[in-house]
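Materials and Methods. Structural model of YlxR domain-containing protein. The 210-residue sequence of YlxR domain-containing protein from Roseinatronobacter thiooxidans was retrieved and submitted for structure prediction as follows.
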Amino acid sequence: MTRGGKTVIKDGPERRCIVSGASGDARALIRFVVGPEAQIVPDLAGKLPGRGIWVSADRTMLEQAEKKKAFARAARQAVSVPEGLADMVEALLLRRVIDLISLARKSGLALAGYEKCRDLALKDEMAILIQAHDGSTRGKTKLRPPDGPDSYIGWLSAQELGLAFGREHVIHASLRAGGLSKAVVEEATRLKGLRTGIGGYAAGEDKTDA
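The predicted structure was written out as tokens:
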């Protein structure tokens, strides 16, 4: 617990959100730098040169950072912020998640389809269950995520999940344990913060099976 009662995560390097002032694991925040022509540039990989400016991976925080000119204060200079910054960050995070799942598929760590996911669960080899948020709730509850935290991802659409597997759509997918699986969870968790109102296991109304 930090001074003032703020809880911090100690699993990795800590950074402070320029909007809320809360400190936390850098993997739960978005890094920005001041790019050419003093424009704010998202640095999701954390590799761009320059002093990092950090905002919680949360749509409201990003919108407040833009509205309250928090980027300019943190950079100590006048800066320009791209229009629709939160939407831009969401799209970039989505691309990273899809690419990582695709890599996991090529490595044999990611499988798609109800039967394959069920078999993986029966063998106790499923580390993470991924289900499309727009799939049938009744159909999705036939599979359960493994016990433990960070074992369920439910905020991708069937079309988005399909892109990772080279298909038109995918409702059920799963990941075996491995380095790529950890990266998928980290990036998907950041994406969830930009997608309010979706993603809980067995939540939502019944929809037509895709």
